[in-house]
Structures are given as C-alpha cells and as structure tokens.
Amino acid sequence: MPLSYISRRLFHLLLILLGVSVLVFLMLRMIPGDPAQLLLGEYARPEELARLRTQLGLDRSYPIQYGIYLQSILRGDFGTSVRTGAPVVDEIGVRLLATIELSLAAMFIATLLGIVAGVISAVKQYSVFDYGSMFLALIGVSMPIFWLGLMLIYLLAVKFPILPMMGRISMGLEAPAVTGLVVVDTLIAGQLGACGDALRHLLLPACTLATIPMAIVARITRSSMLEVLNQDYVRTARAKGLGEAVVILRHALRNAFLPVVTVLGLNLGLLLGGAVLTETIFSWPGLGRYVVDSLMGRDYAAVQGCILIFAVLMALINLIVDLLYVLLDPRIRVHA
Amino acid sequence: MRKIWFSLVLAMSLAPVMALCAEQPVTGGTLIWGRGGDSVILDLAQATDGESIKAGIQIFENLVIFGKDSMDIEPQLAESWTVSEDGLTWTFKLRQGVTFHDGTPFNAQAVYDSFARVIDENHPFYGYGKWKYLSLSLGQVSEIKVIDDYTVALVTPKPYAPLLNNLALWLCPILSPQALAEHKDQIGLHPVGTGPFKFVKWVKDDQIILERNEDYWGEKAKVDKIILKSIPEPSARLMALQSGTVDIADDLDPDSISLVKKDDRLAVTERPSVNVGYLALNTQKPALKDVRVRRAINHAIDKETLIKTIFQGLAVPAKNPFAPSIWGYNDAITPYAYDPEQARKLLAEAGFDHNAELELWAMPVSRAYMPEPVKTAELIQAYLAAVGLKAKIVRHDWGTYLSKTANGEHDMCMLGWLGGNADPDNFLYGLLSADTAQTPGAANVALWKNATFTELCLQAQKTFDKTERTQLYLKAQEIFHDEAPWVPLAHSTIVRCYNKRLHDVPLRPNGLNSFQMVWKEK
Lengths: 336, 522
Description:
The complex is a heterodimer. Chain A is mainly alpha-helical.
C-alpha cells in the first residue's frame, strides 16, 4: 500500500477540516439565538447579558472570533463549553468513546447477521428463508427506532426482566478507565463478571441501533451475491469440482463484497452521528445527545468540536473503505 | 393443621410490629433518582438549570434557607441575623463547629470568599466563573465585612428587604475557600460544601454519585448514597420507576402521572408551586392601550378549561401575579370571570377595531408554567376569536423570543416566571414595575408603567416589617388587577413520583429539596 497515497489523503483531510471549521462556525452564527440569552433564559437582565457576552467573547467581530478559534485549535485547545465551563475536549472524550462502543457493537451485529442472512437468501433464492429474511429486512428498515427501543425495554427489561434497561454498566460496578470502552476495560482488568454485565447492558441498545443497517446489509449482500453467482468464474469454480462452501465463501462472497463494504462504511458513519435516538431511549451517555443539547444551547465551542471530530471520523472511515477496495479487488490500483 | 394455626398467629402478632418497623426511619441504602437530564455545572453561583440545582443543593448550604415544605426563611449556616437601624447593614452570626467536606473549617472568611468572588472584580476568584442572575443573588450587596471569625456583615447601598430570600436561593452557596483556590475555574466539576451529602463522582450525561457526610453538623443523612441518574426519555423514566430500577422519577408527563397514581407500589405527592404562567398585553401598543380592551381579553379566556385540557388538571387558575403559596397573596381579589358577553361589551365600549389583527406570541419551549405553549396559544386564539378579536400566532426560537419580547416587539406574548426568590418583590417589582419596563431588556414585557404601583413596590423594598410590607403588596395587587396588564393564566402543580419504599420525601413549592431526611426501607 503506497504510503504516499495515505499521506496525501491525510493532507486532504486537513483541508477538509479547515473548510468544515469555517462552515460550522458560520452556520452556527447564522442560526438565530444568542448563547448568552439562552443561558440566562427568563431571568436574563440587560446588564448581565452584556457582561456574559463580553466574557464569552461574543461581542467581537466574526473574523476575530474565528481567528481566535483557529489559533486555539492549532494549539490543540478546542475551547471551553459555554454551558459547563469545562474544556470541550474533556466533555467530548468520554462521550465519544461511549458512542464508539455502541456503534461498533451495533456494526458488529449488523454486519454478522446481515451478511449471513444475505448470503443464505442469495444461495437459497425464492426459499422460505429468503422470503422470510427479506420481509424482516423490510420491516427492519421501516421500523421507527424509537418505538422498537421502547418495546424492547418494556418486554425484556420490565415485563420479563432479563436484561438491564439503561446505562453502560450496573450502578455500583466500575470499570477502570483505560480505553474508555467499558467492555474492553473490564476485560483488561480481568473483571469477567463486570465485563459480562457491560455486555448485557450493550445488548439492547446495540440491537436497536443495528436494526436498520442490518436490514440494509442483508439486502445489499443478497443482490450483490445474486449478481456474482451468475458469473462465469463461479461456474468455472464449480466445474473445477470445488466444494460449494469454498465456491460461495471464497469465490463469490469476496467478489460480492465491494458494494457491501461501501454500505458498511457509510453505515458506520451514520451510526456514529445518528445514535441520538438510541442513546436517548437507553440513557446511553454518548456524543449524539451531547451534540443536540449543545446545539439547543448554542454552545458554539462544543458543537464545533463535535462536528470536527465527526468530520475526522467520516474521513478516516472513507479512507479505510478505499483501502479495503484495493485489498479486495486487485484490479483497483492506487494512482501514486 | 397446628402448624398452620401457629404460622397464622405468628403472622398476626408480627404484623403490627412490621408496620411499626416501616414507620421507623432506618439508615442505609442507596437512593436512585431518575431525572430528565444531566446537571450542567455544580458551582451553583453559576448554575441556571434545574438539574444542576437539584444535585447542588444536596452538597451546599447557604446562610439561610427556605423551610422543608414552605418558602419561609429559616437559619442554616447563619444562626441569627440583625438589620441595622438604617436598613443598610445585615449582620449574620455564623454557626460554629461546621467543617467543609475537605475538612477545612467553615467561618466568616469562607462566606467572604464565596460572596466576594461573585461581586468584587478585584477578588482573586472573580475570574474563575461566569456569575449568573446577580439581580436574584448578591447584586444589591456593595460590601462584605468580616467582623470576626463567626460574624459577617453585608452592606447594601439602599435598604433592600428581599435580600434574605436572595440569600436562601441556590445562587448563594458557601464553598470551601481551599477548594476554590485549588480548582479555580474548574470548581463546577469539584463541588465542596458543608451539606449533608458529599460529592463523589460525576459521569457526564450518566450519573452523579453523592455519599453521606459523616461529619455533618446537623442530623446526618439517612441514606448512604444518592445516585442521580439521567434518563432523558420520559417513557423510559416511567418504566424505570415501575420496575423499581429508580426510586424517584422526575418530570413525568400527566399521562404517566395518572399511571403512577394507579400503581400500589408507587406514591405521588402534589403541591401548588410558586410559578406563574401569563399572557402579557403590551400596553404601549395602540390597540391595547385602553384598559377596557385588556379587561375584555381577561374576560374572554376560560382558565378552567385551559387547566383541564392543557395542564390536565395539574394547575390552579391564577388571578394575581404570584402564587398563593407565597406570603402577601391578595386572596380578596375577585378574578375576571369567563364572560364572553362582557368581553364583547367592553370591546364595543372601547371602540375596538374588529378588523385589526393582533399578534399572539407563543413560546417555543415548554416550561412547568406553560407545558404546551403552542396548544395554549391556539386555545387563546380561539377564545379571542369568539369575542371578535383576531389574533395571529407568531413563533420564534427561544433566544430570539426572549430578546424580542424584552424589546416590546409583540402585541401579546406568553411568558412565565419559575418563582425566583419567592418574594413578592420578585414578581411585582421585577416583572411589573416601571423601572423594569425599559426597552431593550425589559422584564416587564407588558411595558406597563404605573407610577403608584411602582412606588408601592419601592416602598416595600425599604420596609423590613413583614406586616407592613404585606399591606403594600396587597394594595399593589389591586392596582394590577384593575389595570390588567396581564392575563394571569395558571400556577402549575408540582408533582413528585416515587416508590413507596421511600419515606419522608419532602416537596417544597419550588420543587428543590435536600434529601437529608429521606429514608429507604431495607
């Protein structure tokens, strides 16, 4: 893999971030609503508003505000949250890891079940399994996450209390903070009981979040597999006398993977940014809710920080997807 | 058979004992408190949101405090106080033998540092925070004097009787000076007070953990720990209460509250709050200048129906600018009856132009005093149409709404007051005097400028005798009623839903309580 390609992409990333920072900066200030006014609410008094605006630097011109912002970002300082007074980096860190843990778990479930269902449906086209799983996939795509989450809580946490309904770990248990991913941290610390507890907490929200991407992955895998299974090289492989499992897994699936990988990459991006509903229903202390709360309070520094982080993550996911293409399909070459 | 009889007799003889046990407070256990969101900051002098205040008042104490179930002032860290003859100097005798959670002693210097950091730009801690709502806290104080280790004096430039209520608000906590010096601008993440609970840990957007302060100066807290758990989705919060995952669930919607009432294991306490929701009539607009038009609007709106439909019964109709749970309330006033006929008559007398369309501004956010602002606006619009007054609903985002109404750009606007310091002054002077009707930044969004009314409020600020002050406020409320600058709509009912295994759960009219005495059955 040419390193020059990767470094060029990373350089592009810097340009993208600069563009994103300008856009977000301007968009936030174009939305009506003054942070000082929102912070003080009904009790706001003109002299207090003026004082707070000065303290927050809102009385300066936009170019100067942006200049100060850019300068501090370059020093690695994302600013201080207007609402909490804490550094934005600290505020984002823990929450981002909570969101990443949830998204990865959902992604894992969606990918595994989605691909298995897609492959079986394609191989056994027009079978009961095919119809059944594609019907489920259709329901999955159209299911309101909100409703599904609440139903899962009601059934599996209240009516038949077999799973916990909220949070990342039982109240009272504690994971030593190493990676910030509770499941991993408890495992590292050798606390198997706590790790199991964290996994049980992860199960309902991850399944809820996985529903839509799982359905998409299943449908894409199916159609992509169907296309590949009719190709000449699959017939050749069969003709060579290879076992059906090898034909499907090595020859067909690998070639059917390109569109699936694209969808997976897009999905992961969507999951990271779109977990707000799931996080809200399951009281999951993630970044999605934080972005919404910050936006409602016009907490400029916080929103800007979050969007920049999302931009970096999206760009990195895209890069990884592109690199995976090269690995999967030898015909794709990188132009150095 | 004998065995069964024996068990029955045993059970019957034990039953009263067990019942007695249930009434006897026990120590220990963890109270899990489900609420709609996380706290924002745990330095209460910088806090503006209810969730921060709820958690913070378990940790911090003030010089004086409101009663457990009332808004009357009681001593807390100050044992007694006196006001000088000229009404300018308040001297507080402080409680001795109190320590902060970090082991440092509570004394006059701690009061000085906690207060001076907010009002004195030269104090070393001044720059460590963004101090909020000075008009409700120490804005009227010009000097803080340390007389001796346990005596502190506050000086105001003019006599200001409501100061005591300000000091009882969350905005005036006493913090450990050592913690202030150590944590600087991050003090909001490391609260150190003198209260019955100590801060242990805060996982943002998830939970705040507090534990009993074993060195507390007063009666020690009953539960070992409080976990304040953020459960943003109201249905999930209800299910958490029903399943016993949490002991208390805050801010449930009316439908959930009726479910809780039907559940034998759960309890609901209700109490009239100190807030008020109102429709302000901009008295500077030509159409609303005539008092007959304003009275007509008051007659046109049926508050009973509003409360039944929008508040689902969880409110009482308002006739004065503040709630009956606050002293000085004028109960002798006869409210404007719902009388569309009378309204039409008054409009006709005033020669009201029925082709004119008035703007009715609807709040974009819901508040305890206005749970469904848009539906409320639609209902009011329909009532006004019924008497021949056309109203157009106008909406803005919250920040814009507040600044535009404070600039007097509306004809009629919906707004409310969460209760402030629960002193009549806060409502009457703060929201209705000529002094606060100056645009931009008017708190008196009716822009109503009545000299007699304002004079009564100013007089009351200088009057330290509560009976005399009450007389002034009773008179002021009569003028308010006559002049009708608002349609006072409702005072919402405050509700606390909890599991019956909890006992002695307090509920102050502003909903903010220390949970020191709450105990949990084993």
